[in-house]
Amino acid sequence: MQHDNFKHRAKDWDKRSNTNTKTIGGAILERFALHSEMELLDFGSGTGLLGFEIAQHVKKVYGVDTSASMLEQLSAKNTPELSIEIVHQDIIQTPLQRSFDGLISSMTLHHIEDLHLFFSTIHSNIEEDGFIAIADLELEDGSFHSDNTGVFHFGFDTDELQRIASRSGFRDVEISQVNTIKKPHKEYGVFLLTATK
Questions:
Q1: Single pTM value for the model
Q2: Structure confidence at residue 66 (pLDDT)
Q3: For residues 136-150, average pLDDT
Q4: Is residue 60 exposed (0-12), middle (13-18) or buried (19+ Cβ within 10 Å)?
Q5: Contacts for 52-61: CB closer than 8 Å, 24+ residues apart
Q6: Closest among 158, 164, 155 to 186, alpha carbons compared
Q7: Residue 196 bridge partners (DSSP)
Q8: Can you list the domains of the chain with their CATH numbers?
Q9: Whole-angstrom Cα distance, residue 35 to residue 91?
């Protein structure tokens, strides 16, 4: 397992990321008709902010992340009434041997170096007619993070990302801006990429 870049940030993560994730969760719920038989994969689940937003509407959410410290925070929030099943694994290097009705992800893609490998790998983990909903930053100048350790992309060219997803076998690929993160020095656009298999 790779180095845990979030070890010193996990405890305070929810304080700074909550509003953006709620907005992304709302956009996903508007786009897809989720139901109580669905099992979804939350890629880069972190502390479960997005996963818990969505888990109320489906049968089960599996939260996958490479950061043990973030998953510890997620685990502490699990209750008998609402929980996320934890998967501590790099599923790009060691793919999961099962499929899901959909994949959700918030602000994780910029930490993935090989986008072609990512989309082709997750394609095999999605059921036929299943969906993906991936939110991340529009192109930026590298100033979004105060520390760019583990950041491989300063946001994304959404047209190029759309092409990569399509070439990996996804259809009906759409990208729309769903939020703007305002920081003292700048504003950053957040998009949601949605597609079906």
A1: 0.90
A2: 92
A3: 89
A4: middle
A5: 52/77, 52/82, 52/84, 53/21, 53/22, 53/25, 53/26, 54/25, 54/28, 54/29, 54/104, 55/82, 55/83, 55/84, 56/82, 57/29, 58/34, 58/101, 60/85, 61/85, 61/104
A6: 155
A7: 131, 171
A8: 10-196 (3.40.50.150)
A9: 25
State the pLDDT confidence band at 30, using cuts at 50, 70 and 90.
very high
Alpha-carbon span 87 to 66, nearest angstrom: 9
Structure token digits, residue 21 = 């994730």
Torsion angles phi and psi, residue 26, rounded to 5: -60, -40
Find tokens 């997750």 and name the residue. Answer: 122
pLDDT value for 148: 87
Strands 171-183 and 186-196 come out as antiparallel
**pLDDT given at position 20:** 87
Average pLDDT over the chain, rounded to whole? 91
